[in-house]
Structure formats: C-alpha cells, structure tokens
Amino acid sequence: MPHIKEHKTENLGSIRMKLRLTQERILPQKCYQSLVEILVNSTKDPQSLDPTVLSLIEQLTTADQAILAHQLVRLFIGQDVVIPFLDYLTLREIKDTSNPRTLFRGNSLAAKCMEQFMKIVGMPYLSDTLKPVIDKIFEERKYCELDPSKNAERKQSALRRLSLKPVDEQDRSLAVLTGYLETVMTSILGSIKECPSYMRAAFRNLARRVSDHFGDEPEYEDSKYTAVSGFLFLRFFAPAILGPKLFGLRENHADKNVSRTLTILAKTVQKIGNIELPLHNGKEEWMGPLYKWIAFYTDEVKDFLDRLADVEDEDVPGCDHRRTVFSNSLIIKEGSVKKCRYRDTRLPKPYKFKKRYCWLSTENFLYAKTNDSQTRQFLPTRKILAVERVDESAFQKPNVFQVVSKDYDDALQILYLAAQDVNEMNQWLSAIRKTTISNPKMLSYFHPGVFHKNKWTCCKRVIKTAGGCQLTHTHVTLSDWRDPLDPDSEAQMIFTQLLQSRDELRKKFLGTKELQKDSQDSSDTVKDQQTPVKNAQTSTVTTEETVATKLLEVIDELEKAHEAIDEKAIMKS
Fold first, then answer.
1. Which residues lie below 8 Å from residue 561, measured CB to CB, with a gap of 6+?
2. Widest CA span of the chain, in angstroms?
3. DSSP secondary structure code for residue 46 in this structure
4. Cα(447)–Cα(4) distance, integer angstroms
5. What is the CA radius of gyration of the chain?
6. Do 476 and 485 touch, CB atoms closer than 8 A?
7. pLDDT in tens, 443-480
C-alpha cells in the first residue's frame, strides 16, 4: 500500500479587515454649478476675514475633513484656481496664529489641503527625486544602526548564534548613512527645475504671507522657511522616505534592516527641514554623530527654498481641458504585457501572445519589443472607445483585456493584451480608462468574446460588425494620485460630506436665529451705545447666517436633483 504523505495545516493566524464600499451617483455637470460657484467665490478676497462657505466648512466636525481636503483640492485644480484657494486657507490660519512655531502643526483644513495638494501634483516629482536612492537602499540591504542599545542587542544575538567577533558597527553605519543622506540631499537641493510650478507658486505665496505677518520680529526671521519646509520636508520628503510603498516608490514594504535605515534617514531629513541647529537635549542622543550634517544642510536648505519660490505666475500653466495637472508626455503607467495579433479564422495559442513593453501617457498608449527600443507602436488615447476584460474561454488564457479603438478610416480595431496577473490587469484597465474619461464617443456595449469561425464566441452573432452584447464599464480606482481630474465626481463627493453635516450646519449657524432676533428687537429700545467690537461681532454672526442659509439651499437643491433621478430610475424599472 503506497504511503500517503499528510500535509499538516499550520495555524497562520488571522487578520481582521475593515472594508468600506462607497457608491456615488454622479449627476450632470449643470447640477453642481451652484455648489462650485459658492466654493470658488469664497477665495475671491483672501485678505477679507468675512465668513465664507470654506470658513464654515472648516468648523464642521461631522464631515470627513480628509476626504473634503482631497476633493476640494482636486475641484479647485480643475477650476484653475488652486493657488488662490490655498492662499486663502493658509492666510486665514496665519492670521489666527500668534506663534509661527506652531503654524500648520495641527490637522487644520489648510494643512490637510496643502498636504493633499503636494500628493496630487508632486508625486511624479517625488518619484524622480527619491526613487533612485530608495531603490539603492532596498537593493543593498545594509544594516545601519547608531543607537548603542540596539547595536548591543544585535551583537549579543549574533555572537550567540554565529560566534562572531565584536566589531565597531557604529562607525560603519555612520559612513553608510551619511552616504545615503548626501545622495538624498543632493537630489533634493538640485531638483528646483523638476519641481512642478504649481507647488513652487503655492510655496512662494506661503513664504510671502508668513514673512509679511511675522517678518518684523527678529526671533521669527526664519519663519518663512520653516512654514514651507514644514510641508515640503516634514510632510512630503520625510514620510516618503519612511514609507516608500505608501508613496508609490516601491511595490513592497521594507524588511527589518532596510526599514531601520529608512527610519534614521527620515529622522535626519526631518531635522534638516526644521531649519534649526540641533540641540543636545537628552532626546535621541545617539543621533549626535549626524548633527554636523544637519547643521551643514541648514543654510543649503534656506537657499534652496529661496530659489524654489522664485517663480512668476505666468510660469504656472493652467490645466485647460486636459483634466490633468501633469504634462502630456508624462508616463503614468508602464510595464510588460503580452500582445496578440489575432486573426479571425484561427485562435492564437498561448505562446502566440508575444511579450511587449508598454507605456501609457495622457495622450498615447505605446508598446515595443523592449523598454529601450527606439521604434514604438502607438495608439492615441483619444481614439480609444472601450477598455474591457476578455472572457477566459475566448483564448483559453486568463487576465486578457482588450483596447477597442478606431483607425483613421473609422473602422473598429481591437488590441488584445494579456497581463501577468489579475491585479496587473485591473491596474491597466483603470489607468487606460482614466486617460479616456473625456473621450466623447465611448462605446456603450462591447463583446467579451472574440469573433471566431464567423461568429462571436460570447453572443453567437454572425455579423462581425454587430454591436456588443454587454455594457461597457467606466469605473476606475479612485484616490490615486494619477487620476485625471473629474469635476463632477469631486463636486458629488463634496456634496455627500456636506449632506451628512447639514444638521450641524443648521444647529451651529442658524439654531439661535430666533433668539438673536428677539435680542435685536429688545436692543432697538435702547440708545445706540454699542462698542465697535460688538458691532463687528453682530455683523459677523449675520454674515455667517447668510452664508449658511445659501449653502443649505444649494445642498437642498442637489438632494432634490438626486431624488428626481431616483424616481425616474424606479419608473423605468
């Protein structure tokens, strides 16, 4: 009797996941016009302290401020007024702050919007600046540690396991770390031309506003630098070094050795961004050997920030109708897939799918035999009519998708591509769909099969030009920094947050309206003896009421528009 080997199932543990599915119904653009107008009008006069819709939104506690910040930034980018929008928010916070050392240190709407702005606009810049050195650290996997207590633990463990001789690892670690630090700082300090002009203009305005407000006080003369570096270094470069996967710089998380190296490097870059000479105050004294490097780069960073802010408004391009803030030539996705030259009469075998390297920009989908090929085939994205997956039974091959387009004679052409796995396929589907979001003549139906032996394998129709048998898809992966701008989607997401906060708006800004009215009637019998301060307060309250009333009217109108659409859908069904 043959021996049957039993496989023991190991207890690999468990994981608890929290999932949230968000589904939004996007209305026609005209429905959101009133909401967009009152938001944009809020930034018309940044110097004014009068309440606006944005100032009311800042005070809401029931709305998700992170979602609001992300969508507001995207909406204002789409309206080509993101710089005035950021200037408005940051100026209000500057005027409300007495000590520049605490400026933007909290999670205010201004801080969140500026952070989201950097992620939306600056991610390609971040990748160009940091990815080479991050890749090097991951590849070399060198152990770096300056903390003596952690070094002692590692030495004792190594001696017990491998009988190693004690070595002075701190000097070796310092040499490796300073080498990485020099590479990082050289790349950052030399990246002024690569920094998007949007970011440079926003930082220029921020530095000017802080300097105008605090510049007269000698102790705060560096405040304009710390305000900008607080965003650029503390909220952008340092977090990207600490968690490169979260910023799209690596596909996988770092192992223990690499993670420790990145942690020390991120701490050092953060201290450099503080624009202050480090003090030996008993905290993390093990970083002492790096202090001379931190001090060395302090003046370098000031000069870098001055040159970064040296940009004129005419150098900042609008996004026009491209619905993206990136250059048309920017590659938003690239990688290897397998391409099929399919003939109607004979299905290709799996090995007939030949490997090709592909590039996707906002204007073209290109492919070639290798990534360094000088000759590339290209398909303009404006000619793409649908991007859909193909039934596995069509080619007896999984993860195949099709790109349907029109050639120059307006005849339909289908390009079949096979990805390595389902995740890669979904990424390509989403990325290509994003570039076609503004195409006016997208198909409503497609064939998930292929035309073989004079009929479609999916619906058995015998006419090759017959319309598709399944509805096409337009969904894409949201919250991706490469998403093209979709003003209707952004307005809808903002409306959803405001709808959830409608009761709070009424209670906070209109709840005491009758009481205030009675108080005003009583005051009419008294002679005008109010102070200017009290008059200003009364005026402010009244303005908040007016703004809140207008915002609630817009929310109610949008809710009715949604209800009308739902009623039509019910009647059709």
1. 27, 31
2. 111
3. T
4. 47
5. 29
6. no
7. 999 999 999 888 999 999 999 888 899 998 876 654 45
